[in-house]
Specification:
elongated, alpha+beta, five-stranded antiparallel sheet, Thiol Ester Dehydrase, Chain A
Length: 141
Protein backbone atom coordinates (compact mmCIF):
# COMPACT_ATOMS: atom_id res chain seq x y z
CA UNK A 1 0.00 0.00 0.00
CA UNK A 2 1.27 3.45 -0.88
CA UNK A 3 0.03 6.88 0.10
CA UNK A 4 -0.84 9.78 -2.17
CA UNK A 5 1.85 10.88 -4.60
CA UNK A 6 2.62 14.55 -5.18
CA UNK A 7 0.35 14.57 -8.25
CA UNK A 8 -2.59 13.37 -6.12
CA UNK A 9 -2.23 16.06 -3.46
CA UNK A 10 -3.61 19.60 -3.37
CA UNK A 11 -3.39 22.61 -1.10
CA UNK A 12 -6.17 22.38 1.50
CA UNK A 13 -6.12 18.56 1.78
CA UNK A 14 -6.22 17.64 5.47
CA UNK A 15 -6.43 14.70 7.85
CA UNK A 16 -6.91 14.17 11.58
CA UNK A 17 -6.02 11.59 14.23
CA UNK A 18 -7.46 11.55 17.76
CA UNK A 19 -6.32 9.63 20.82
CA UNK A 20 -6.95 9.74 24.55
CA UNK A 21 -3.60 9.84 26.35
CA UNK A 22 -3.33 7.18 29.04
CA UNK A 23 -0.91 6.67 31.89
CA UNK A 24 0.48 3.63 30.10
CA UNK A 25 1.15 5.74 26.97
CA UNK A 26 3.35 8.01 29.08
CA UNK A 27 5.24 5.13 30.73
CA UNK A 28 5.72 3.31 27.43
CA UNK A 29 7.03 6.47 25.79
CA UNK A 30 9.41 7.06 28.71
CA UNK A 31 10.68 3.49 28.44
CA UNK A 32 11.18 3.64 24.69
CA UNK A 33 12.92 7.03 24.65
CA UNK A 34 14.66 6.99 28.02
CA UNK A 35 12.99 10.31 28.96
CA UNK A 36 12.20 9.75 32.63
CA UNK A 37 11.65 13.40 33.52
CA UNK A 38 9.76 13.31 36.86
CA UNK A 39 7.25 15.81 35.46
CA UNK A 40 5.98 12.86 33.40
CA UNK A 41 6.34 9.86 35.68
CA UNK A 42 6.42 10.99 39.32
CA UNK A 43 3.12 12.30 40.69
CA UNK A 44 4.63 13.46 44.02
CA UNK A 45 7.18 15.54 42.12
CA UNK A 46 4.64 16.76 39.54
CA UNK A 47 2.23 17.98 42.24
CA UNK A 48 4.86 20.58 43.19
CA UNK A 49 5.22 21.91 39.63
CA UNK A 50 3.35 24.65 37.86
CA UNK A 51 1.06 22.00 36.29
CA UNK A 52 0.12 20.35 39.65
CA UNK A 53 0.04 16.87 38.07
CA UNK A 54 1.97 14.72 35.62
CA UNK A 55 1.94 15.82 32.00
CA UNK A 56 2.61 13.89 28.80
CA UNK A 57 5.89 14.28 26.95
CA UNK A 58 5.63 16.99 24.31
CA UNK A 59 7.16 14.68 21.74
CA UNK A 60 4.57 12.00 22.50
CA UNK A 61 1.94 14.50 21.40
CA UNK A 62 4.02 15.48 18.37
CA UNK A 63 4.10 11.80 17.45
CA UNK A 64 0.39 11.99 16.67
CA UNK A 65 1.29 14.26 13.77
CA UNK A 66 3.73 11.63 12.54
CA UNK A 67 0.88 9.12 12.61
CA UNK A 68 -1.14 11.30 10.23
CA UNK A 69 1.74 11.78 7.82
CA UNK A 70 2.66 8.08 7.82
CA UNK A 71 -0.83 6.62 7.64
CA UNK A 72 -3.13 9.16 6.02
CA UNK A 73 -1.69 12.31 4.40
CA UNK A 74 0.27 11.74 2.29
CA UNK A 75 0.35 8.24 3.81
CA UNK A 76 2.53 5.11 3.53
CA UNK A 77 5.88 5.79 1.88
CA UNK A 78 6.07 9.41 3.08
CA UNK A 79 9.47 10.57 4.31
CA UNK A 80 9.57 13.17 7.08
CA UNK A 81 12.02 15.95 6.14
CA UNK A 82 11.44 18.36 9.02
CA UNK A 83 9.09 19.58 11.71
CA UNK A 84 8.80 22.86 13.59
CA UNK A 85 6.91 22.69 16.89
CA UNK A 86 5.60 25.13 19.48
CA UNK A 87 4.19 23.58 22.64
CA UNK A 88 1.38 25.86 23.81
CA UNK A 89 -0.26 23.97 26.69
CA UNK A 90 0.25 20.73 28.66
CA UNK A 91 -1.37 17.39 27.92
CA UNK A 92 -2.61 15.55 30.98
CA UNK A 93 -3.53 11.90 31.48
CA UNK A 94 -7.07 11.44 30.16
CA UNK A 95 -6.93 14.30 27.64
CA UNK A 96 -8.17 13.45 24.18
CA UNK A 97 -5.85 15.01 21.64
CA UNK A 98 -6.80 15.62 18.03
CA UNK A 99 -3.86 16.11 15.71
CA UNK A 100 -4.46 17.76 12.33
CA UNK A 101 -2.29 18.23 9.27
CA UNK A 102 -3.26 20.44 6.33
CA UNK A 103 -1.32 20.95 3.12
CA UNK A 104 -0.35 24.61 2.74
CA UNK A 105 2.18 24.34 -0.09
CA UNK A 106 3.23 21.88 -2.77
CA UNK A 107 6.81 22.37 -3.94
CA UNK A 108 6.59 20.36 -7.14
CA UNK A 109 10.14 21.00 -8.40
CA UNK A 110 11.59 19.55 -5.18
CA UNK A 111 8.83 16.96 -4.70
CA UNK A 112 8.09 18.29 -1.22
CA UNK A 113 4.90 19.18 0.63
CA UNK A 114 4.59 21.69 3.48
CA UNK A 115 1.80 21.12 6.02
CA UNK A 116 0.39 23.13 8.91
CA UNK A 117 0.31 20.85 11.94
CA UNK A 118 -1.74 21.37 15.10
CA UNK A 119 -2.99 19.48 18.13
CA UNK A 120 -6.00 20.43 20.22
CA UNK A 121 -7.47 18.91 23.37
CA UNK A 122 -11.05 17.84 24.08
CA UNK A 123 -11.95 21.41 25.02
CA UNK A 124 -10.79 22.74 21.66
CA UNK A 125 -7.70 24.37 23.20
CA UNK A 126 -4.70 24.33 20.89
CA UNK A 127 -1.81 22.63 22.63
CA UNK A 128 0.69 22.38 19.77
CA UNK A 129 1.34 24.40 16.63
CA UNK A 130 3.82 23.67 13.91
CA UNK A 131 4.75 22.99 10.35
CA UNK A 132 6.00 19.84 8.65
CA UNK A 133 7.95 19.28 5.46
CA UNK A 134 7.62 15.87 3.83
CA UNK A 135 8.54 14.01 0.69
CA UNK A 136 5.42 12.13 -0.45
CA UNK A 137 5.70 8.59 -1.78
CA UNK A 138 6.88 8.13 -5.33
CA UNK A 139 4.45 6.63 -7.87
CA UNK A 140 4.82 2.87 -8.39
CA UNK A 141 6.80 1.84 -11.46
Amino acid sequence: MIGKTIDQLKVGDSAEFAKTVSESDIYLYAGITGDFNPAHINEAYAEKTFFKTRIAHGMLTAGFISAILANQLPGPGTIYMGQELKFLAPVRIGDTITARAEIVEIIAEKKRVRLKTTCTNQEGKQILDGEALVSPPKPPK
